Amino acid sequence: MYVTCMKLPVLDVFIWIETQVCEPNQDSLATSGNHLFVPLCSVLPFMAFVIVYWGHSLFHFTTFSFGLSCGTIISFFFLSKQGASAVDDKFVISLLIGIIYGMIWVGIWYNCGIPILSASLTFLHSGVLIACICYHFGLADLEPFHRNGFYWSIFFGIIVACWLILSIFTMPGHIFSCAFFGSYVLMVTTLNFWMGGNLQYVVINVYRRICVPNFNDVILDPPFQPRDFFVALLGIFFVAHGFYKQLKNQAGRPPFPPHISHRYGVETTPLLGAY
Q: 270 to each of 264, 266, 273, 275, how far by Cα in Å?
């Protein structure tokens, strides 16, 4: 542990800063999980690009992908909260649970065939991301949000509000959610990852709020550099362009793919039964 004394010449005050530094070793590097992000950021851009431009028409793929995302993220948060130390183990276990969770959501669609039920998973992802963005850009630094009860009440309130608004416009809402969430993943795993931006902390800081003790006392005030501004503008372009292209491709088609029971029904009534 090092203690740094810093004097500000204008204010003539001293600020004591404690920093903790650990020396890396092979064991810590083996469990840091850094080597997992390169293959992960090589696969996710392709999935995100497909969801941005064809997420609504490939409804089963999108349902599985968002189920995979939801199951993996929730499992990773839960394992982190339980104190599991190895990032590799947490990620592999969470990914397996996410695959099962994605298959369950696809099974729900095949069994029920209710569009609003399957689309709600996509709406909730968009709501979570919108809440994270609001908190990232200043809302979480306000004094009332340092209290966990107030913080999470507003957080889940934003999610529910987004879900309700998107549910009213089910098909356009689903298309927007695909373009919105897919664009964020696409930007974070491509330009932001390789250029060293800060947009990944939109979600990471919420994870820290859950898993890091006393993180509610931290003032975030994240930097927004020119490269972050460029990546954000490009992400907005992908949202708008993906939304427009999917709406255009959807013209003249059913709002959601018909359920399997409607596509493969057997006609039993004679067409000319009266004659």
A: 17, 12, 5, 10
> In this structure, what DSSP letter does residue 41 have?
H
At 46, list the tokens. Answer: 């392709």
Q: State the DSSP code for 2.
A: E
CB 77 within 8 A of CB 211: yes
pLDDT in tens, 203-261: 999 988 988 888 888 877 777 888 899 999 999 999 999 999 999 999 888 888 877 66
Q: Which residues of 100-138 are buried (b: 16+ CB within 10 A; e: fewer)?
A: ebbeebbebbeeebebeebbbbbbbbbbbbbbbbebbee
235 burial type by CB count under 10 A (0-12 exposed, 13-18 middle, 19+ buried): buried
Listed in sequence order, the residues at least 6 apart from 21 whose beta carbon sits closer than 8 Å to its beta carbon are 1, 2
- For a pLDDT cut of 90, what percent of the chain falls above it? 49
DSSP labels, 238-255: HHHHHHHHHHHHHTTS-S
| DSSP 8-class letter at 212 | S
**What's the count of helices (H) and strands (E) in the chain, helices before strands?**
11, 2
End-to-end CA, the chain: 94
| Alpha-carbon distances of 167 from 43, 73, 244, rounded to whole Å | 30, 23, 19
**Prediction pTM value:** 0.81
Which residue from 73, 53, 71, 66 is spatially nearest to 109, judged by alpha carbons? 66
- Tell the residue number behind the tokens 């431009």, with chain if given: 53
**Structure letter (DSSP) for residue 146:** G
Residue boundaries of the structural domains of the chain: 38-58+110-252
